[in-house]
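Subject: sequence -> structure tokens, single chain

Hey, anyone have a minute? Need the predicted structure for the following. Not urgent.
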Amino acid sequence: MKLLVIRHGQTQANAEHRYLGALDLPLNELGILQAESIARQFSSPIDALYCSPLLRARQTSACISDALGIPSLVAPAFRERNVGVFEGLTQTEAATEFPELWAKNITRHWQDAPDGGESIQEVFERVAQGIAELHANHKNHNVLLVAHGFVAKVSRALVLGFTSDFFDWQLGNGETLELQMPEQWTASAAFISSDAALGA
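Reply:
Had a minute. Here:
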């Protein structure tokens, strides 16, 4: 299976460099243009299209669905990481309003998270399960997945293996990450390797 992970088009929160997470904001004007242009990137046949349940991903996926003539299926496992009390804030605002959490570099902890948010471990677990379901249902197919920045990071680590640039690597709005899934890939094996690499 070839898995093409697409990050949704830009929102105003993305443009302002704010934590977006579980906040359900629409695409801005540039994001709509990005979504409309994405479908023209694909020359190979696309067999299935999935998206996160969040509005910005569904809007992006709807543009692709219309262009390619295939249905867009919602996959809850690929929603963006909830960063709790940091949501809607810039990094400067988060550091000012929650100095103790910020000083801990809390968003990079494996088993901890900003208050009300998800840990990295929790995101790895649900994304791994989501990829496992796609892999089981679409062997030898080309699958598009419209999701989010942190989901793309996790997907990349689960399929390619954890690398030292995990936190620095970023998929831009409207960009695509191509992942060729090994035939024998399993969620449990991928998760164990990432678990160890992040020091769980």
